[in-house]
Request: fold
Amino acid sequence: PYRLGIAAEAQFERFNGGGGAKTVSLEARWALADWNKIPLNPTLFAEYKFGVGTIRHEEAPPPPGEEEEESGPPKVPDAYEFRLLLAQDFGERFEWAMNWFFEKENTGDRGREWGFSQSVLMPFLLPNERLKVGVEMEYKNFTVKDTRGNPENIFVIGPTVAWKPTSQTRVDISPLFGCTDDSPVADVFVAFSWLFGSERAEAEAPVSTRFRYYSGAGVADNYSGTDSGKEMKQVALAPCPQWYGDNEWNVNLWGTYAFTNTEYNPNLWLVDVVQSTSEGHPVLGTFDRYIGGDHAWGGGGDIKYFFHRYFGVGIEGFALDASKNGFDIFEDPTTPIFTRERINHDHTIGALLGTFTLRYPIPCTRFAPYAWAGVGAIFGGGEKDILTTQGPSDAFTVHAQTHHFGSETKSVGQFGAGLEFRIARHVGWTNDLTFGVIDGPKNNFGMVRSGLNFAF
Reply:
């Protein structure tokens, strides 16, 4: 968190037939900013090493006249270290990394070492940066308490190759050749690393000082290796795949099941309809006044433009295949005629709305919950059958006639929430639950929708 990393490290050494624990260290590193927010991505590093083993070989020959201790090899001294870690990609073609370090022992011969290591690599031939070649170098200035004025100057340089057989494995080879009298003739470094998890982008560390470790995005991570050098590695987590764009068009096609918000229990006894109407209180039962039945199937689509990653505006339309229960009654007691018939008004209901959408693409996932609201017009429903009567309050002696009224257009508001899953960058699967409010009583409805979203 806050670009801060804290770690513990244990070092074990094998030398000349013997070996064991050497040091235990505590370290902290802090990146001054997120990755690529400031040039060179500087990170500060501090480490304290606790010596827990014995010195099995000296980093420098003892000063003239000083004899080796007769009581056995001395204990590894405690030491502290500070580093400045730098790394940068240049034009996505060159990867540069550098590590400046200063380390000092607290006891013993009080060895002091400072210097830098750096490397430059570029992708070569194979796709997806599977093969990189470049140049690596390392400089160290080393003294002990009695040789401060006469330091060892060690400088090595040579080619470096990084090859990724798979996205999780990497092999690095760096043959470095000495350029000063204090330098070895050649140092050949071979490193094999295995990444557990998804592949990540990084500025390659000099292989001569690598100790593979990484932490949060934007933090440069560096750990010390063996006595032969200091490790520098600055790693940035690869940006998560961007499944949702900051600015994109969405075309969504979906199927729907609509359900009414009014209990569906119409009065199917038409004689009772006539009788109650003649008494001045028609008993028609309960049912939705616009869609009609208790449910309907349909489909629709919408076009949205997200002018920001989290906000979008659009137009939505849908159609429902609905059916509404009705009746046709005619009665003339003077003839006498009394006809009564239950009928269905099969109709297609359509709507057109303007919408506003809020969504939140969950970072590093394919999921984006969203909520939306819209207003517009709905048409094709709302047929009415109205029975009028004249005469006594008797179903069999009254004059009765049905008046049929066709569909009507009403204003509608709709709102809902759902979840999108991006199957691919430009194809998503959406599922949501919405509620519609139509002007007038007993008209509200809900919709369950599922469909495909195409993003451009």
